[in-house]
């Protein structure tokens, strides 16, 4: 099994290659995380896994190594609703990182504004059962309502099997909604399969729905270089060029099948976004619109 909640797993490649592909100037890695250090920012008591520390300095060094300019750091479930490690990284980034936080609906306006000032521009709802216990939908809707005045968006992470059940809920959410990792399609079935096409149809029906064409390393059955996932990424980029984001997912929490090489992941970009225009939209225009509009 490629993913499971396990403790102390270091899932990042120790020596990612320098990509041959050079991202456009200003490129954004729009899905990555920081973990700890646990001595300063302890993991949440309710977490389902305890990763190794993955510091902001390591993340920023990887950004430079891969040829990116900016990061979007996404709150992971192991830190629960304690966004201190995220805020610490954002404040140290010299405005080159923005964040997606996890909040409780009763967060104060002062705390929300503090997150905004640090660079948070969205909140994340996680529905993956191995990662979190369920939160009542009314509380999520209340959280969504709390962040509208700040112009934030909502990131959702779910398994493909849960799309049908989640669809009515997604339609109640205000503003832009970003679906992590293409809604986690089963890449053992073709792009034309009704399951993936149901996600495509939802993208067509909801002009406020975006997605991250990320995580081939999680979705693959074949393994690197992830040839079985590329058609899904390419399809979404082709059909929704102005509503797609790309990210490394460093430090790849819960990956146990192999250590993903972030240089390889970067080198796959021209295979999923074959033109300079589509690469620029994916890596610069779209994330800048969502995270650096101000
Ligand atoms: C990801 C994927 C995973 C972890 C989390 O919040 C999290 O803990 O999202 C995963 O295990 O699939 O996007 O980082």
Q: What do these coordinates show?
A:
The chain has one domain (28-291): Alpha-Beta Barrel (TIM Barrel). It is globular. An eight-stranded parallel β-sheet has the order 1-2-3-4-5-6-7-8, with helices on both faces. It has helices spanning 56-66, 84-91, 109-118, 137-146, 163-172, 194-205, 216-219, 230-239, 262-267, 269-272, 276-291; strands at residues 28-32, 70-74, 97-101, 120-126, 153-157, 177-179, 209-212, 244-245. The protein is α/β, with parallel strands linked by helices. The model has no long low-confidence stretch (mean pLDDT 96). Helix 1 links the parallel strand 1 and strand 2 (70-74). The chain has eleven helices and eight strands. Helix content is 34%, strand content 12%. It binds (1E,3Z)-4-hydroxybuta-1,3-diene-1,2,4-tricarboxylic acid. (1E,3Z)-4-hydroxybuta-1,3-diene-1,2,4-tricarboxylic acid binds next to loops.
């Amino acid at each position: 099994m490629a993913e499971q909640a396990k403790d102390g797993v270091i899932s990042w490649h120790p020596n990612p290659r320098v990509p041959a592909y050079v991202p456009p100037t200003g490129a954004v890695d729009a899905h990555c995380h920081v973990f700890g250090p646990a001595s300063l920012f302890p993991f949440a008591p309710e977490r389902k896994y305890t990763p190794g520390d993955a510091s902001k300095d390591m993340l920023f060094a990887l950004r430079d190594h891969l040829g990116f300019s900016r990061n979007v750091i996404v709150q992971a479930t192991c830190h629960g609703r304690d966004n201190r490690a995220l805020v610490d990284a954002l404040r140290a980034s010299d405005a080159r990182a923005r964040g997606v936080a996890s909040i409780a609906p009763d967060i104060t306006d002062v705390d929300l504004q503090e997150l905004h000032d640090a660079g948070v521009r969205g909140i994340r709802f996680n529905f993956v059962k191995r990662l979190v216990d369920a939160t009542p939908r009314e509380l999520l809707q209340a959280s969504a309502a709390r962040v509208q005045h700040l112009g934030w968006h909502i990131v959702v992470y779910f398994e493909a099997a849960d799309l049908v059940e989640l669809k009515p809920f997604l339609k109640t959410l205000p503003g832009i909604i970003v679906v992590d990792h293409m809604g986690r399609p089963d890449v053992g079935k073709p792009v034309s399969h009704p399951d993936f096409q149901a996600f495509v149809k939802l993208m067509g029906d909801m002009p406020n729905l975006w997605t991250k064409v990320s995580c081939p390393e999680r979705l693959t059955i074949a393994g690197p270089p992830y040839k079985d996932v590329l058609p899904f990424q390419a399809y979404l980029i082709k059909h929704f060029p102005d509503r797609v984001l790309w990210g490394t997912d460093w430090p790849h929490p819960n990956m146990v099948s192999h250590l993903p090489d972030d240089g390889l992941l970067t080198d796959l970009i021209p295979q999923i976004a074959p033109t300079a225009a589509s690469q620029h939209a994916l890596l610069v225009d779209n994330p800048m619109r969502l995270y650096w509009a101000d």
